[in-house]
Amino acid sequence: MVPFTASSDANAVYTAYRIVQEIATFLRASEEDAELKVFYADLRAYCVIIRGHWGRINKGAVEINRQLHIRLLEQLDYIVAPDVFTTLQVPTLNEKLGGKLRTLSWYWDEARKKNDTIVKLEIIRSCLEFGGTPEARDEFIRSLATSEEEIRKIYPEDPEKWITEDITSRRTIREPPYAVRTAAQSVFNALTACKGCLCNPMHDFSARICLGTYRKPDPGPHANVNEELDFDLFLSMIGEWHEARVHTEREEVVQFVVGDGGSQSRFGKRDRVMKPMKVKRLCEPIAKIKTMAAYRLDFKVIRNQLFKLQSQKSNVLFNTTMNPISLQQILEEGPRSFTERARRILAVILSSSALHFFDTPWLQPIWSSANILFFRTASGTIPLRPFIQTQLSGLEHGHFSNHSSDRTVPVGSNGDETDSDSGGPDDIDPDDLVSHQCPTLISLAVMLMEVYFATPFKILARRYGVEVGNTEFSSCTRHIDTNLVFEACKGEIPEKFLYAIHNCLEPTIWEDLEGNKLAAEILRIRIYEEVVRPLETELIKAYSSISIDDLDRLAQSLDFTSWDQAIQPWNDQVQAVHGTVRTSSPFSRPSTSNQLEYNSPVKSSLQSHLQYHELLGQGHSPPPPRAHSPLRNGLPLTAHTMFKCQSYLDWKSKYQEVYDKYIPAQLGTCCPVPVKIAILDTGLDLTHPDVEARTKNIKGKYNWLQEKFRQSVHDRNGHGTFTANLILDYAPDAELYVAKIAENKPSSPKTVAEAINYAVSEWKVDIISMSFGFPTRDIEGYVDLERALANAYANKVLLFAAASNNGGQLGRSFPARDHTVIAVHATDANGNRSSFRPTAIDDDISIGTIGEAVESA
């Protein structure tokens, strides 16, 4: 049991009300007096409600209203007996705010260990004093009701309506390292200065620089101000890519030290100093590193000149023999590998890249998701570590084409520039006036929309009925087209994303009062304040454990195309597991017989699809991986053995034989009404090829999350699409009704209840599929869900819910435990129970079916 802590702890209220809730539940069960039973029930109910509010507030990452915090604790202090410190000797605690509650917590923990109910009652009743009369107890309940109403007033369900002074981030974000841009320019100058060589033919050099925030953990006030800025790159010569790191640092002040004439080691030997070598021709160190497997080049830039340091072991073994994957390719594959966390992290990294590299040769004004590249490691993972490519050949040292503003220049009929004095205001083309001074930010706005919706820009435009031209040419048309798409879809974009994209597209933010582009220093500050910082705030608000200063390290430890799984250290990755299919992204090539197969940490079970607790019940694990689709190349995406994969295919083949033998003949002798199935899930990806081929089966759609877009049920997660396609694989004549009840965060039981009632009364379905589960019914709104289940059962609707995927110890989840619901358990292809399924309960309605190595969209 987690002990109650000091009153200053933000979790103190939540913990205190949980303890009192547990005590009230115990006392009510042991009480015979009717009036007291009602009192304990009311007390328990208000504890549940206040705990729910407080948990919601804590997730908001805001400063808690101090007065409300103290008042809620004082109310519970009131029910603890005043002589608790003398009656119950707890020498380490003193009587101050929260002291009584900490004492009560300690004794409740002791009481729970007792097997004798009478002893438990004696301990608890000696600590508590609810009032000697019904009137006093009613007054206490009314005080709780008043506090609950005050919480809702200060912190409404909609966080946008929270009182302004409380919306203060608990964590401050330091200013970004503005020196990155200058250092990056120096690195480029140093590389181009030594690209010339005497080789025939001359080499074609390219570089790919790593994009990131370039932040480091706060070094503190006494840190070395001359700390290095490191840039990770890949350098190419003759089409081969080689890893490199370039160090830059500020010039240090020369100091003279009076000593004994020399520095000697403790063994009397002189320390060996590796003197850097000035690089004259870039092809020489690149050619040499080819012979040093698993090493990277190390350079240092000193006064715009490139020096070679001793080569170092690479931290990550990249597979440079395979082409990198572009962000555009990942987007075209659909949203299945895009977790909410990955979207937010990538948005911060891309916006930080615009901050650090704008108006440098590393970042062209018209950049896109096709230019953002991700490298595979030798083990097949793809770290969330983007790079962007730049040509070094053909550029003169210190010069590059800076098209930071492609505002149209009026020309005469002969192609010459017109005389500025020959025309007045009436001679200015209006198209010239809508140009954007920073086309780099237009490109960023496009990518932020692509990342949030996990959809390529042109497909996104078609989805919202916007016709766009070729966005690669004119800044004017790109700006107009991007604005049109943004206006069409902005209702579905969360606040901080919305704010950042809007600011990218607003030309006046990036101009001075005379309409000219802002000076570079002012522009950098404004990019951070208007675009980057809102996205950073959104990220740490959603994921309080993430540190912006440590974001680059975190990002490169995540497997981008495998649902943000942590990438194992290289030494762990090389442990081959015989007979196991390696976890693979949709972009991995099939392995050949002479390649090692690596085991994945992902649990090998379809039940992770069928019981989506991460989505609706527990919310502490990444979304489950999508199983292999027969329409895609590559290996299955979950770590099933070859035997289990083949066993499933055999099972499905036998099912198809039975279906073909009996069902079509039966359908031919009568005109049955198709079965109507409601799927309560994450929606449906109508652009998926498996779904596009079956659109006639989709008879109804309803989005319970977006009031303005009720008919838009686009699946950004992939789980709902997987489930819907699986049903149609086995019941191809069924009619599907899609209820989108969740995205990537838990959905309330009340929302699920509304969806069930709608499916029964409006769609009049025969079956409702619920591939999710709650760990307990002791959550707000579950009573509404129970009523909805009872209503569906009374209307003769079959209800199916996932049993659980937590094994036999934790039992089935809810609503699978409800007597009106049929619990679905997983088996292997031979009908044996799966290790992750819970134990079935006697006399309850349960079914078992294959749940391992299953294929779907």
Automatic annotation (TrEMBL):
Q: Where is this region: Disordered?
A: 403-430
Q: Which residues form the DUF7580 domain?
A: 180-539
Positions with biased composition (Acidic residues)? 416-430
Q: Which residues form the Peptidase S8/S53 domain?
A: 675-838
Q: Which PROSITE patterns match?
A: SUBTILASE (PS51892), SUBTILASE_ASP (PS00136)
Q: Which domain of life is it from?
A: Eukaryota
Biological-process GO terms, alphabetical: proteolysis
Question: What is an example of a Pfam family matching this protein?
Answer: Peptidase_S8
Q: Which family does it belong to?
A: Belongs to the peptidase S8 family.
Listed name of the protein: Uncharacterized protein
* Annotated organism of origin: Xylaria multiplex
